[in-house]
Amino acid sequence: MAPTDSVSVFAEGTFEEQIQELLDYTARSNPEDERTALQQSFKDITKTDEGEKPIGEDEDRRRKVFNLVLNNTKGVGEGNEQEIEGFFNLLFSHLFTLWQVDSPETRQHVIFLLTVISASPSDNSSVKYRILSNLFNTTPRSSALRPPIYTTLLQVAVANNELELLALSKSDVERWLKEWEVSDEGKSQFLKTIVDTLTQAGQQESAYDYRILHTLSLPPSSPEGQSAAVGTIAAALRLPTVFDFDALYSLDAVIAVKDHELFPLLQIFLNNGFPEFSAWADSHSAVLESYQLERPQLERKIRLLAFSSLGFDYIGRNLPYSTIASTLHIDSSEVEKWTIDVIRAGLLTGKLSQATQSLYVNGSSARKFEREQWEALEKRLLAWKAGLAGVIEVVASAHKWGGGVAEVVQAAQNEQGTQVEGTA
């Protein structure tokens, strides 16, 4: 049996008794004459004439009576939450017993139930989540039914402004995509559904991670792949918290749209600074408007990126205010404000000194990591190695000549400070 994420449903009574219970639940709100007619249909199907097989052994009649229940299921029903959940759990159990999980009939029945559940005017959305979650967990992990089930969960959640209740995570989605036995096109469509749902819910930053996955799932040279790549570029530029353009630039689908009007702007954010952006923006205002890109927000991002690149060159050293102001094209009086911004953005760490009008850079992010950045990192590592070797030598020497603990620690700190401050 294929693995699932559910526990078994144990129900008392014979098949006929369980179906009778399901049918009674669906008919609660029906007029009396309709309930009578429904009961008569049930009796006609379940009646075993002489020479016939008992219904427990007659799969065709069992399917027929199940369809009678299914066709009379118009919503989640009028029971309490426990009754509603129990009804659907039993219904799902019989469905997967009567048909193979990934058969066309099962898919047709599941799609029908998803429509019924999502369209039901139930005031309590929590019971819908439990019903759909139970159905999702009941199906095998590899089942092609899981994408439409979870898509319905997303639709219900966003309709009720309760998307956070699903606790959707990128790691779960990546795992599901590996498990599901669905086509690449189906997986791409599921990712697009997540992007559209999160965007509709106003969760643009969460949607961005799935935009990357969606773009990766499509053939780079296909129209769909190129459209997704352009949308991802625009989202990366638009979102105030996205600063990693190197990862985006490495996507094949992004490279495939190198002739697109947004591609030069992406290159500026990867390689250049404020003057280059300002020149491009002056001549491409229509492009900014077309993709809902706000120039003040882009100016902030390009300055922060230029600041982090400058900081990378000054790790372990003092960065003068004047150099920062010149690079960012700002007044010297604004340097401290921008320093706070770049630290809050997680792009740089350091300590300001008003006395020396400088920023001591402890660490900073590089916009891209190529040969030049690797060489700079190698130099710093070698400098640290030399500094640590000096510390070891000082400690050994102090021990040799009988120095106390305080003297050893002080000597080591002096040696380390000298070596580190001299790195570039």
From TrEMBL:
One of its GO terms (biological process) is formation of cytoplasmic translation initiation complex. Residues 44-58 have a biased composition (Basic and acidic residues). The keyword Cytoplasm applies. Residues 202-366 form the PCI domain. Residues 27-58 are annotated as: Disordered. It is found in: Cytoplasm. It comes from the Eukaryota. Keywords: Cytoplasm, Initiation factor, Protein biosynthesis. SMART domains: PINT. GO terms for cellular component: eukaryotic 43S preinitiation complex; eukaryotic 48S preinitiation complex; eukaryotic translation initiation factor 3 complex, eIF3m. Its main location: cytoplasm. It holds the Pfam family eIF3m_C_helix. GO terms for molecular function: translation initiation factor activity. Belongs to the eIF-3 subunit M family. Component of the eukaryotic translation initiation factor 3 (eIF-3) complex. Component of the eukaryotic translation initiation factor 3 (eIF-3) complex, which is involved in protein synthesis of a specialized repertoire of mRNAs and, together with other initiation factors, stimulates binding of mRNA and methionyl-tRNAi to the 40S ribosome. The eIF-3 complex specifically targets and initiates translation of a subset of mRNAs involved in cell proliferation. PANTHER family: COP9 SIGNALOSOME COMPLEX SUBUNIT 7/DENDRITIC CELL PROTEIN GA17, EUKARYOTIC TRANSLATION INITIATION FACTOR 3 SUBUNIT M. This is Eukaryotic translation initiation factor 3 subunit M. It comes from Paxillus rubicundulus Ve08.2h10.
